[in-house]
Write a structure and sequence with these properties.
heterodimer, A: 235 residues, alpha/beta, Rossmann fold, six-stranded mixed beta sheet, four-stranded antiparallel beta sheet, 7 helices, 10 strands, globular, B: 766 residues, alpha+beta, 24 helices, 20 strands, 54% helix, 17% strand, ABC3_permease_C (chain B)
Chain lengths: 235, 766
């Protein structure tokens, strides 16, 4: 089951990554490479630094030491504005609790990601609608988050993450707040995306999700990588 | 109780910014409230307070000495309606030589023999030197904002004693121009006896006359030679205060409204944003009552501290402020009575905390009723969006998304936005009103400064007379460098036939308009035409086109009133030089008013005048003190209210940022730049600012239209239409920015804080 996978140039390269919160080290010298088209699952006990790792890759937080290079850009050296532009162009994020704007319809939540880059509203909506069709939630495009089911909300969140065609899709416990049926649907969606070439990093507690979606498993404990495994594709 | 205190203390510690905001807003608002109420109080009864402090006489009466004895007057003063009386004091009319004018005395003065400044009635304020206790000493009636540098100087009464000035006292009721010791008055040949009465029924002129009639009923016929009531004095002295009152009232009311609104907004916002914390307390086992206690304590501690400090600061600020607001030619008399009334402090100390508690009570009671689970989930559970139609339209608008998102934010929290909007509206109303007021007063001030230098005939310092004659002088002043125009002015008393009162007939040669704007009619063109001020028309029941007969030294002339000016003097009649000399052939100018060319140096011209003729004294025209005072104080008040309104916006922006931390984190995670976050947050408040301008500007214009004419009426003038017509597109455009500016200033700091939010931290906390 454990085989080395080195098929393409790394999209993500972490080198001696360290993150401290006060005197506590959330990450302690993590080095890792993620190649284009890979689906990597990061697992570990609560507080091991999984989400921190994801935040570092997404440029949502800055490392205390070490480097994060995504698509050739050293994330730690970017300005606040540079980080925002980096996230816009390179990253799509999916959160456990969806983080949709309650006052915007599902379609406007998704279109928002493109509109922030200066895309005209009409064009952004057209692209959002395409994604809604692809994700099977076109019928719910005018609904507001409060009336959507958990699965629907997460699909909207996935659509939003894909809106700017990111190089890297990061998912933080994407099925953690969903019932099993909705969780399955989201898993299928992530598998489909990876199969069409989307690089994927999923932080999860859910072994089933890791097994089904990921081609590689990274294990974290106490802020360190304690194991790396290639996973057999599940049927 | 201990648990409540502990939880409240922890909450205060955890919410440092919010606690600071409550403290700051209550401090500034209470300070503004104290100043505002202080102004309202001072503006409503300034005379009554000063008059009460001096135990002023309701009636000042003069009796003929040859008709009634002092003993009989003392007995008459025991009539039932008399509350208190002072006198009898011997009273003399003394002609003062020209040099005595140096002491601010006129030609004929009233001197009263009085043993001391105190007593049950008319306690005069001896503010410099001491009282006259022996012959040869005199105390002059002078306002305390003058200087006392004449102490020790002497003047000689014609055919009488030489008097040394030993003190200056101020008597609001003006019962005398000077006082001497009773032992001295005999040498001044008194002709009357003065009695000062305070009556029990003193509210109306009729009541006072009736009381006086009761006192004088038993006295010989013709014993009472003159009397005046305090109500006439109140009208005269209070005219400046009447001018200030409407505008101070307007500012006071605006200040109170803004203060209450902001406090309500801040406090209720603090409770609403703490719902999650309330849920946790309930989950820990706090009873609903204890939760209520925690929140009321959490709000009350900074609020009470803020109110106490604000009251103190308000008192400190109000004292010089009131002194400044009530400093003017005729309002110095009110100095002694200025200050914050105890009821204002009491109201601020009790009222503002009460407003805070009431503002906190509504949301706290709501929180008290909330099930713990719902309270805990507040903020993280999806809520039904608000004003969704607006959000949808904004999402499709051709605006940068950060702008359209910001524009929609105020609709998500309508109640909070409404309170903030109300504060901005009041702020803009204040700015608009103050701007209009300043524009009108500037226009009025400019009307008063149609000349730059006044050259008086004679030097009052050494009594020198001018070397040149009238015509020679007129020509000389016109030839001096910088002069473009010279107007000679004469002032002489004449009698208005059919009236008992004298008028001041002012002649002008070389120009017609000196310091008055024409309200109605026209300026005089022909001999025999005059213009008068509105108060003259009112007092004498005269209308434009009416003819008046003036008499002087046995000569009578008829004049026609052709114009109404903005003069406040109810005795002034202005005519051309030929009109005046027709009645007074020997009229001589007392002053020459010189207009200088643009950019000419007033001081250099004054030096040239003195060099040309040492018998002249020169006064440079400065800015008008009353208009300067009003504009200055209005600016101060406007800044203060704008600051409070900005704090309200600041608070709303802080609360909104706090409430939307999750959204902000998400937006940043999908690529919103810090600049876009700032733009969004500032836009959300700028929308309220723009709406505030839209509502506040018309309100400010209405306030200007209502208040300013009343201020003018307070000093018996009618403002010409052009002085009220101050609203033009450029000014309105600038004002439209006022609301936006208030909002942007208030939102900038929270917006930058929002822009700096660490996404990972925000999203992790959620």
């Amino acid at each position: 089951m454990v085989t080395e996978v080195r098929t393409a140039d790394p999209v993500v390269r972490l080198d001696g990554l360290r993150k401290e919160y006060g005197e506590t080290a959330a990450l302690d010298g993590v080095s890792l490479e993620i190649r284009a088209g890979e689906a990597v699952a990061v697992m570990g006990p609560s507080g091991c630094g999984k989400s921190t790792l994801l935040n570092m890759i997404a440029g949502l937080d800055r490392p205390s030491a070490g480097t994060v290079v995504v698509h050739g850009e050293n994330v730690g050296e970017l300005s606040e504005k540079g980080l925002a532009l980096f996230r816009r162009r390179r990253i799509g994020m999916i959160f456990q609790f969806f983080n949709l704007v309650d006052d915007l319809s599902a379609l406007d939540n998704v279109a928002l990601a493109a509109q922030l880059t200066g895309t005209a509203a009409r064009q952004a909506r057209r692209r959002a609608l395409e994604l809604f069709e692809e994700l099977g939630i076109a019928g719910r495009r005018n609904a507001y988050p409060a009336v959507l089911s958990g699965g629907e909300r997460q699909r909207v969140a996935v659509a939003r993450a894909l809106m700017n065609r990111p190089a890297l899709l990061l998912a933080d416990e994407p099925t953690g707040a969903l019932d099993s049926r909705a969780g399955e649907q989201v898993m299928d969606l992530l598998i489909d995306l990876n199969q069409i070439g989307q690089t994927l990093v999923v932080v999860t507690h859910d072994e089933r999700l890791a097994q089904r979606c990921a081609s590689r498993l990274v294990e974290l404990a106490d802020g360190r990588v304690t194991g790396e495994h290639t996973l057999e594709p599940s049927v | 109780m201990r648990a409540v205190w502990k939880a409240a203390r922890a909450a205060v510690r955890r919410r440092r910014l919010q606690t600071l905001m409550i403290w700051l807003v209550t401090l500034v608002s209470t300070g503004a409230l104290v100043v505002a109420l202080g102004l309202v109080d001072a503006a409503s009864a300034p005379f009554d307070r000063a008059f009460g402090a001096q135990h002023g006489p309701h009636v000042v009466a003069a009796f003929a000495r040859d008709r009634v004895s002092d003993g009989r007057l003392s007995r008459a003063a025991r009539a039932s309606g008399v509350e208190a009386a002072a006198g009898p004091f011997a009273q003399a009319a003394v002609d003062i030589p020209r040099g005595a004018a140096d002491f601010g005395l006129g030609g004929e003065i009233t001197v009263v023999g009085r043993a001391g400044p105190g007593g049950t009635v008319d306690r005069v304020d001896l503010w410099a030197g001491r009282w006259a206790v022996r012959p040869g000493e005199v105390v002059l009636n002078r306002q305390s904002d003058w200087t006392a540098d004449d102490l020790g100087k002497k003047f000689r009464v014609p055919k009488g004693p030489t008097l040394t000035i030993v003190g200056f006292a101020f008597d609001l009721s003006h019962t005398a121009d000077a006082w001497v010791a009773p032992a001295q008055i005999g040498a001044l040949h008194p002709t009357a006896t003065q009695m000062l009465f305070r009556f029990r029924a003193a509210a109306t002129e009729e009541g006072l006359r009736a009381e006086l009639a009761e006192v004088t009923g038993g006295l010989p016929r013709g014993a009472l030679t003159a009397s005046r009531t305090y109500l006439a004095l109140k009208h005269r002295i209070g005219s400046n205060a009447r001018a200030y009152a409407p505008y101070l009232m307007a500012f006071g009311v605006l200040g109170i409204l803004v203060a209450v609104l902001i406090v309500a907004n801040v406090v209720s916002g603090a409770v609403v944003s703490g719902f999650r914390h309330i849920g946790i307390l309930k989950a820990l086992g706090f009873t609903p009552g204890q939760v209520l206690g925690v929140y009321l304590t959490m709000i009350s501690v900074p609020a009470v501290l803020g109110c106490a400090l604000g009251t103190y600061a308000g008192n400190l600020l109000a004292e010089p402020f009131l002194r400044f607001a009530f400093t003017g030619p005729a309002s110095g008399v009110l100095h002694g009575s200025l200050g914050i009334a105890p009821w204002v402090n009491l109201l601020a100390l009790l009222g503002m905390p009460l407003v805070c508690v009431l503002a906190a009570l509504g949301p706290s009671v709501r929180a008290r009723r909330l099930p713990a689970a719902r309270a805990i989930s507040a903020g993280s559970a999806p809520r039904h969006g608000r004003a969704l139609g607006i959000q949808r339209r904004l999402a499709s608008a051709r605006l940068p998304r950060s702008v359209s998102l910001g524009a929609g934010l105020p609709f998500a929290r309508p109640a909070r936005s409404a309170l903030t909007l109300a504060a901005v509206v009041l702020g803009v109303t204040t700015v608009t009103f103050a701007t209009g007021l300043a524009a009108t007063l500037n226009s009025y001030g400019n009307g008063e400064r149609s000349y730059d230098v006044t050259v008086y005939v004679g030097d009052h310092r050494d009594g020198r007379e001018p070397v040149h004659g009238d015509r020679e002088l007129h020509a000389l002043l016109g030839r001096l460098p910088g002069a473009t125009h010279v107007t000679a002015r004469s002032d002489d008393e004449a009698l208005l036939v059919g009236s008992t009162q004298a008028v001041m007939f002012e002649g002008r040669r070389g120009g017609r308009s000196l310091d008055s704007a024409l309200v109605k009619g026209r300026w005089m063109r022909e001999t025999g035409e005059v213009v008068v001020g509105t108060p003259f028309l009112r007092r004498n029941g005269v209308h434009l086109g009416d003819r008046l007969r003036l008499r002087k030294d046995g000569r009578e002339e008829e004049v026609t009133v052709v114009g109404e000016t903005m003069d406040t003097d109810d005795r002034l009649v202005i005519g051309s030089w030929p009109t005046v000399t027709a009645l007074m052939p020997r009229a001589e100018p007392i002053a020459y008013h010189v207009k200088l060319r643009e950019g000419a140096d007033q001081s250099a011209y004054a030096r040239a005048v003195r060099a040309a003729d040492p018998g002249l004294s020169v006064q440079l025209s400065g800015s008008n003190s009353v208009t300067g005072t009003i504009v200055g104080s209005a600016t101060g008040l406007t800044l203060m209210l704008s600051l409070v309104a900005s704090l309200g916006v600041f608070n709303t922006a802080v609360l909104n940022t706090h409430d939307r931390r999750r959204d902000l984190g998400m937006l940043k995670s999908i690529g919103m730049t810090p600049r876009q976050v700032t733009v969004m947050t500032v836009t959300s408040m700028a929308v309220l600012g723009a709406l505030g301008s839209l509502i506040g500007i018309p309100l400010g214009i209405v306030a200007h239209k209502v208040v300013v004419p009343r201020m003018a009426a307070g000093v018996d003038i009618t403002l010409p239409r052009y002085m009220m017509d101050v609203w033009h597109v450029p000014l309105l455009s600038v004002l439209a920015l006022a609301g936006v500016l208030i909002a942007v200033l208030g939102a900038l700091v929270p917006a930058r804080r929002a822009a700096r939010l660490t996404v990972a931290e925000v999203l992790h906390n959620e």
